[in-house]
Backbone:
């Protein structure tokens, strides 16, 4: 199982970014997917998840209404659109397979998001 996250960068407060996670090594279309982040000195935090077909999503309260998770099963890719970014969104962002929060595999390298003026 392999995850390659990309799309991070430096953005000003209020800005937007869209992260991508290209996956391989498993049947993407049969699995839910999740996005996490890890801020400096903190544990990894679940942000959002999406069902295998994309019809179900849910979000942690801190990002609900600002972030949108989506997927393209044809391209084995999950996305995280992030709007109205805040300095507290600064972190390394990771994706993971599975709808259940108990399902884990090896993490990818993540993509750094820095929100700063």
Residues:
């Amino acid at each position: 199982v392999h995850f390659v996250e990309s799309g991070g960068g430096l953005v000003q407060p209020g800005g937007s970014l869209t992260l991508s996670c290209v996956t391989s090594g498993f049947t993407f279309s049969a699995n839910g997917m999740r996005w996490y982040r890890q801020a400096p000195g903190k544990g990894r935090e679940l942000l959002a998840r999406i069902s295998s077909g994309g019809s179900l999503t849910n979000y942690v309260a801190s990002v609900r209404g600002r972030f949108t998770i989506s997927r393209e099963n044809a391209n084995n890719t999950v996305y995280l659109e992030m709007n109205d970014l805040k300095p507290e969104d600064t972190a390394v962002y990771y994706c993971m397979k599975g709808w259940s929060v108990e399902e884990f595999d090896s993490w990818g390298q993540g993509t750094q998001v820095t929100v700063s003026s």
